[in-house]
């Protein structure tokens, strides 16, 4: 027992410590062997394929020298936000005596900013809670979930006790100071509240919430992410996903996981480690994964180009705003083509072509600029086989920067560049000639989960910021669209507000998925439903309004849950 206690304590300290670096690693041998090989302070097991390794690091200023592969280094994710029930067919379902689906005995799990469990929208009539679990990764004073080393888990019994006490936060101190998680949970699964003219899509579903802790400082510094924005690291997201899956297995109930975060890091083709994990569990019976497209279509954060055989190079121009302490830039080329890059600073100082190599790290300083550029080439990126160049601009001089792109070996493949998601930078940093397609944030490019764009249900138009498909590899995404513009929903403090964003569209879809899982599994109409089955019905039943489908904005159409059930008559 003492050995287990020592391990738990050591792992908790490592996971939370700002002096410990976190990375993904393939399972090789026993955990003891891996601990010795990596000289690790702790190793968390994700699944039989992946682990998270935690290692003490003495000098974060030279982190690029630790030789992590691109895919092993955790990405940082931000939040995807800033009459609808009738529109998506929920009220029609409730008016059908035979159906009248409300999400009963289905869990909807969220990985987000937490939940205001005291909100009336999540209470039963007897003042007990519809929130069955909270894993608050930010509170270290209580007991972590079984098999996890950090944070505090609160059960329904504890939440009910809190609701019936004079000071609920003395019993369950978990809150949602941001309001994003509360809003999404309310849209997907809030109570029917006639007084405030509100209902969630699945008002009898069980609710589970993973409240994410903020990313470690070394990751914020590495990606140059501002201190005043919400930022979450991939390791915590993947463990939150694992927790919700374990909860569904423990309780023997179907599960919908609603994700409200996204990132521009990665190949935009669903090849990341969290992407792979979400894709794999999407195949499990009784599991449905719902993801947003992100809000990057109008941010100026993506560029697509090609160097023609008649050209030696082309220049990609980036406007860098004042006050930008730094930013990252990702360059991707589909194999077998190879490109190389150089740079031109705002003052005209030119950095010549950097020859591509299998693994090359370069640090570039300028004579007339305070800027330092770190360039990491992977001509054969481990997970995709494509060329990837990861570029970090430290202290960039404001003005027009040029990335000079040279054709080395081209088979008429375009190249793509992505800046970070908008909230990670100032509003004045963007591509001069952006390309609005292929702007779905990861993990929304993952093939099997349901990826949802946001539309305006008042006029059937797409939300201007809604990420557009397809994926970099050409797979059709998004799958469908759902309401996400000026949506009325609950916020902390028993009040309501209006919000827009693709995570809100994902919340509508998550609630609709719970209704389908209730019909299929809880009511024993089909025991084998998973994400693919739910997605197929949603696509078949989607509204298609005045355009060609599928397309890069709406996917296969607009969510219509009544239409999904109606499509069963044709099967």
Explain this structure.
Helices cover 22% and strands 27% of the residues. The model has no long low-confidence stretch (mean pLDDT 93). By secondary structure, the chain is of the alpha+beta class. Strands 5, 6, 7, 8, 10, 12, 24, 25 and 26 form a nine-stranded mixed sheet that branches. It folds into three domains: 2-58, no CATH class; 84-296 and 442-570, 3-Layer(aba) Sandwich (Rossmann fold); 302-431, Jelly Rolls, CATH 2.60.120. The chain has 13 helices and 28 strands.
Q: From the helix content, strand content and strand pairing, which structural class follows?
A: alpha+beta
Count, helices: 13
The CATH topology of the largest domain turns out to be Rossmann fold
Distance between the termini: 56 Å
- The domain tally reads 3
Sum up the structure in keywords.
571 residues, alpha+beta, Rossmann fold, Jelly Rolls, 3 domains, 9-stranded mixed sheet, 6-stranded antiparallel sheet, 13 helices, 28 strands, globular, Peptidase S8 and S53 subtilisin kexin sedolisin, serine protease, Peptidase_S8_Asp-AS
């Amino acid at each position: 027992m003492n050995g287990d206690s020592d391990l738990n304590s050591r792992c908790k300290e490592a996971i939370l410590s700002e002096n410990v670096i976190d990375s993904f690693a393939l399972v090789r041998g026993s955990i003891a062997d891996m601990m010795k090989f990596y000289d690790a302070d702790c190793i968390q097991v994700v699944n039989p394929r992946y682990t998270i390794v935690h290692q003490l690091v003495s000098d974060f200023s030279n982190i690029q020298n630790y030789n992590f592969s691109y895919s092993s280094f955790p990405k940082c994710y931000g939040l995807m936000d800033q009459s609808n029930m009738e529109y998506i067919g929920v009220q029609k379902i409730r008016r059908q005596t035979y159906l009248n689906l409300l999400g009963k005995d289905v869990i909807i799990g969220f990985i987000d900013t937490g939940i205001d469990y005291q909100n009336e929208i999540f209470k039963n009539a007897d003042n007990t809670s519809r929130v069955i679990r909270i894993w608050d990764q930010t509170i270290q004073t209580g007991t972590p979930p079984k098999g996890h080393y950090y944070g505090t888990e609160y059960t329904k019994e504890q939440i009910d006790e809190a609701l019936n006490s004079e000071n609920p936060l003395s019993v369950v101190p978990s809150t949602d100071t941001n309001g994003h998680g509360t809003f999404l949970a309310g849209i997907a699964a809030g109570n029917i509240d006639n007084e405030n003219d509100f209902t969630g899509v699945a008002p009898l579903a069980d609710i589970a919430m993973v409240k994410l802790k903020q990313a470690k400082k070394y990751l914020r510094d590495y990606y140059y992410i501002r201190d005043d924005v919400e930022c979450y690291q991939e390791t915590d997201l993947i463990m939150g996903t694992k927790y919700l899956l374990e909860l569904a297995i423990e309780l023997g109930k179907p599960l919908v996981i609603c994700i409200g975060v996204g990132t521009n890091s990665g190949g935009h083709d669903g090849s990341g480690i969290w992407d792979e994990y979400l894709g794999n569990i999407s195949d499990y019976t009784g599991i449905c994964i719902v993801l947003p497209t992100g809000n990057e279509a109008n941010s100026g954060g993506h560029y697509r180009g090609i160097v023609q055989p008649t050209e030696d190079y082309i220049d990609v121009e980036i406007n860098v705003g004042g006050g930008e302490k730094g930013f990252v830039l990702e360059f991707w080329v589909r194999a077998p083509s190879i490109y190389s890059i150089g740079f031109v600073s705002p003052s005209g100082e030119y950095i010549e072509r950097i020859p591509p190599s299998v693994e090359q790290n370069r640090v570039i300083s300028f004579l007339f600029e305070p800027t330092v550029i770190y360039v990491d080439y992977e001509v054969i990126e481990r997970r995709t086989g494509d060329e990837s160049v990861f570029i970090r601009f430290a202290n960039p001089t404001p003005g027009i920067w040029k990335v000079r792109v040279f054709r080395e070996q081209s088979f008429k493949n375009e190249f793509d560049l992505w800046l970070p998601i908008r909230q990670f930078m100032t509003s004045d940093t963007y591509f001069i000639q952006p390309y609005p397609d292929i702007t779905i944030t990861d993990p929304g490019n993952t093939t099997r989960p349901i990826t949802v764009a946001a539309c305006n249900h008042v006029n059937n138009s797409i939300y201007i910021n809604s990420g557009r498909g397809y994926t970099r590899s050409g797979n059709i995404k998004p799958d469908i669209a759902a309401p996400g513009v000026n949506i009325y929903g609950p916020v902390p403090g028993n009040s309501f507000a209006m919000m827009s964003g693709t995570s809100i569209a994902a919340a509508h879809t998550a609630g609709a998925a719970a209704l389908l899982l209730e019909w299929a599994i809880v009511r024993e109409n089909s025991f084998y439903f998973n994400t693919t089955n739910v997605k197929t019905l949603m696509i078949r039943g989607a509204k298609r309004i005045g355009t060609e489908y599928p397309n890069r904005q709406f996917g296969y159409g607009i969510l219509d849950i009544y239409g999904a059930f109606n499509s069963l008559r044709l099967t």
